[in-house]
Amino acid sequence: MREPVIATALLIALTGWCVVHGVSGIAAGRCADRRLEAAEIVMALAVVAMTAPAFDPLPQGLWAALLAASAAWPVRRSPAPAGRHQERHTVPPDAWAHYAHHVVGASAMAALAVAPKHHHAGGTGVQAAHAAVPAWTLLLLATYFLGYAAVGVAALLLPRPVTGHHPARDRAPGPPALLRLVSARRTVMAIGMFYMLVGMS
Known about the structure:
The protein is mostly helical. Helix content is 65%, strand content 2%. The radius of gyration is 18 Å and the shape is globular. The two termini are 18 Å apart.
């Protein structure tokens, strides 16, 4: 039984790094989209809470409300009014794709937070059986997050093709090292979601 404990501890440590990285990015003004960054921090905290429920002081209903709010908050971002061109350019070109991915994860977590469940003896939150959520739904979501994580790992490890023309409008703001850290953080979160969903199914 040591393998699940070690894997769970590693997941908590990596997700904790995601929280620290997100908070430090907002504090230092290094994030491209503060609203999405804050929503992803809530998501990471919820993963930690669901993975280690014994150390979570918040009720599940409150987590569900926070996750639902985090799913709706970034999507409500309206285009910048005229004269605020700099704020408009701070949002990466693929922001809506990140929003959609976050909505899937936060919505799934909110539903799982309030679903009736029972715990195996000596089990963790990851090993909880959610009777109200069909196993095929959990596996479908797990497949999605596994695919997202695989794409993220490939993007981080494989070299990008070099082209001769790089229009400024096609590049997300921020230094390449920072953007890779954000991508790594989202990949870690996807791996964590996959691990939890497989453990719940």
